[in-house]
Records
---
Amino acid sequence: MKKYYLLLIIFFTLTSMTSDKPAYRLFDKTGKITSYDNLLKDALNADIVLFGELHNNPICHWLEKELAEDIFKSKAKQLVIGAEMFETDNQLIIDEFLSDKIKESNFEAEAKLWNNYKTDYKPLLNFAKKNKIPFIATNIPRRYASMVNRGGFEVLDSLNADAKRLLPPLPVKYDPELQCYKQMISNMGNSPMGGHSNSNLPKAQAVKDATMAYNIIKNWNKGKIFIHYHGTYHSDNYESIYWYLKQLNPNIKILTISSIEQNSIDILEKESINKADYILCVPESMTKTY
């Protein structure tokens, strides 16, 4: 009889597992299924956590906040948060909001906020505000990235001293052989515009990466953990922001997270292996925030 009940337990356990519809699955860089506990443990031992998101994916935004909260539980005052979605010329108004000098309505009316701010990034900012965590606007003001897109890095030299304080030190280091930038050139060659496409586009992307890396390093000190949120492109394959961070500090410990969508999340597809230290895999059918 005991054997019969044991078989029933095994049967119902297995059938319930096959009917599960998990919202996400974590893989390590080799494609092996791993756990959130392992991710958290490695994040707590890192200096910088680069969390690459899919901007309209609710699982990414949920896990970003969960990870920040769990790091805070262990590290408290050692945590610093930063994000691509906020530009350096908004740091003052962010600081004023976090320190209760201005009302939320004033902040939201005057800051340059993404269209999905209220659903996707406001919870992070409010978490930082509640717990007095520094929140760093790391990205270059979009007008300067647009200048680079039109005229290359050299146009930044024409800016005045106040503007240059919003940028990384000039001249901006640039490696056109990085695959992330080479791929942009390749994609332009396949576009309907063909040879008329702007060859400065990868430089505009690189100046964003350089600015974000510079502001991460500037606001990090030994013993702290800086968790940074950005589009997954900006740290995939250990390039972009990661590359610039290593130029600034070769010894810094960086943990990377990439986000992808797949039709099935049972097995990591080959092209995503070694994309990051951890790969957050979400079903393609997941609802979007916009």
---
Amino acid sequence: MAGEGRAQDKTLAMIHTVAGLAGSFGALAREMLPGLPVFHLVDEGLLGRIIREGQVTAAMCRRIVELAANAEQDGADVILLTCSAMSPAVDVAAPLLNIPIFKVDQPMVHQAVAQARRIGVFATVPATLQSVSDLVRREAAEMGREVAVITSLRAEAMAAARAGRREEHDALVREALLSLARQVDVVLVAQASAAEALRPEDVAGLPAPVLTSPRLALARLRDWLSAED
């Protein structure tokens, strides 16, 4: 497979703000990048601060920079930040590292801007909604495309997930995505945790295509490994 030859001498670090994503992203990496050593850094306290403060702050970005620096010192050759809310921290961390760091949502956003004009962005955390919407607008400006961003926020879904009511979270996400998909050309699910609520039959029944970040992000990493070969 493309990039597999480099898997033996590269190590991937993933930084998460949701502990459960370490397992799902790890499984996806084993599927798409077999043989690639992977380790995870998790800071769930950061997610709590994002939710409480409602925005990404300089102090939060410093936390990501510190985690990324630790990952580099621990032997990572490339880093993936899986928290879309904290994507702005990648721009802060990148010049300070000697290895590349990737935003989980960048490939998803690029694909959406390239193919659609009315782009829906769904999130369950306000800061995530802001970060991804801003990224869509920046990507559109760089590509010279005019887009309309239509947003949908279901904070109560995140509250349900953090309280252990996963079925309620998933039902709220699916309901919101159905409503948003009726208004746009493509829907972006801004959080990997929300993407896990979608079943194949849910996606097939929506009136607009849905893009999620995990698989597209791993495909981008695979391309990077191939380019390094």
---
Amino acid sequence: MKLLRTFSGHGWFVASMALAASLLFTGCRSAEVPVFSSDAPGTLMGGTGTNASEVGRFAVGDVVTVMLIGPEPPLPVHEERTKEDGSITMDLIGSVRAAGKSAGELQKEIHDRYVPKFYTRLTVVVKSPELSYSVGGEVKQEGPKAYLGETTLTKAIQAAQGFTDFANRKNIRLTRAGKTTVHNWYKIQEKPALDPLIIPGDRVDVRRKVF
């Protein structure tokens, strides 16, 4: 037997949707993504910014945050780290593959699996994956760094609070998609055009001096 739930009070629904979406995305640096609503199933609501598929897709280990707006009583926010098989597990609909999908694509799949089988009206909001790169080795603050826009190797080192006293500034390694290039800090200072761009997913590793 189908579990059908209706959502009464259109004005309250619209206000709740706007408030919840605002709270979820306030301060979020990811690009705006479309929101799928069963007011017109499968259509885009809002979403005038860059589509999330252009800036990032979920990977194994990423935290996926899903908000379901509309049914009564209100459903709690679902937050889960993607499993090794790339999936998350949602109430009623079970396993949903998240890895490899943008926030917009995942929103649509979740919406279409809930509506109309379990709910007659539902809005799905999925938070985009955080964009980051990592800096390790002989820097003062190792670890992942939020990607805040155009970034160079110099800016990445600054985001890691600079070099330690043991850093080999002639041997800075930049790894991207399995390929590594070596960069010399001193040459970059002399010729800024040599300062490579950093993109999400990159890893910067500053080697230690050999005494």
